[in-house]
Amino acid sequence: MVDLQSRRGATQHHDPNHIILLLKGFGIFLISVIIVFYYYFLSSSILRSGNKHDDGSSRNMSGKHPIATVAYAITVSGCPKNNGDSGDFGAGIKDGAAILKHSIHLNSFQNYPQSQSLYDYKMYALVHLEAESCARPALDPLGYEVLLRDVPVPLAEIEGQYLREKVPSNGCCGEKEFVKLHAYTLIQHPVVVHLDLDTLVLKPMDRLYDVMINGAPKDGSNGGVDVAFGDPLIPTPATDVNQINAFFTRDYNMAHLGMKHAGVQGGFLVLRPSLDVYNEFLSIIRKGDFRSNGGWGGMGFGPFYGSMTFQGIVPYFYDHLHPGTGVELNRCIYNNMADNPRDKPTKNDVVSGSCRDGYNRPDKNDECEDCRSHPIEDVVTTHFTLCQKPWECLPQDADRIQERLCRKFHHEWYRIREDLETTLWGREKVQLTNKEEVLKARGGEFQIEHFRGYCKGHGKRGYIQVVIPGQA
């Protein structure tokens, strides 16, 4: 006989081992689902990342992560005289460095989606040993990584007597200008941009980075890069590797009739870092084959201003030793200095003379573009050379071609300074039309709507210096 009471009791009391097995099975199932979904999304993310560039110009604007981090480097070869009241550093290293960095920030992934840039940035300062005392206190608080560097090749090791004896007095900074070459050692980044302190970034440079990282577009286009003279991005016949390792502009202000090669403008260089390239530069300097009547290697890369250092050795490397791997950019778009393209003065907005950039390009002799008339909306970077430094409080308000664009460039510099101080540093915003409010907050009343309260009067003595947070 079957005990019915016993059977009812069995249905009410479950086997503990059976419950544990059920829970383990459910747990394994749940973990499996999680793993499957994780790898699904991970693989989708990788595919999206790998498809950000179908060619050199397309970009995935829906991505949430930067493509890469670009290194931006400046070089400080010496300390400004008279506490920075004059000279290339103007009001001091910190003013140029602070506003330059913020202009980079505004045009980077850090300011996405406003910037529409997919590249992040990191700031470096290549500081000569003799400049540490003035550079580090200014640059450390601004977020620059200070790298103390000596000249890559001591003067005593330069074999060529002419270069060894003459280079200390060449250009702005003599042999210290070679400190810039240390930018090639930042190999933890795919791209390095070396800029002078008196430059300003107005638009993202993603197109340059796309081409340098992914190569030139396969369809033969320029990938949106504004190449000088409208030339192709890759020369014909193309090089074996078709790899672009540098973008630069040339300084035609230093060009003269009969000159074989124009130098690069030393305030702007986009480069592919490489220890091999760095060491090759060192070998060139150490050999010191710079001739008084023929420049580097006797090939016509000099003599001109700065030709013994950065402005001469860079074109010698990319034009002669490694042709096709460096690209000259349109200097009205990149590194615009608002310079006169012709060799005679401009009077009443009427240009005269021959095109300086036509000395080496007879086919372009009368077709040079006047960068002074270029729309500021199209300018990617500017360099305050002929326009003078923004921190000298020069109005540049005469109605002539020589000053119109300069005033716009200066206006942008002060606008970016204001954005840095109010948006990033949290300082008081003011109505520029309220003079008393501006004076109380910033102290300047000279052309307030232009200088935004940072100039007390005309000239460098009227400039109100940047005060870094936490510093008196």
TrEMBL record:
InterPro entries: GNT1/Glycosyltrans_8 (IPR050587), Nucleotide-diphossugar_trans (IPR029044). Keywords: Membrane, Transmembrane, Transmembrane helix. The chain crosses the membrane at residues 21-41. This is Glycosyltransferase family 8 protein. It comes from Stephanodiscus triporus.
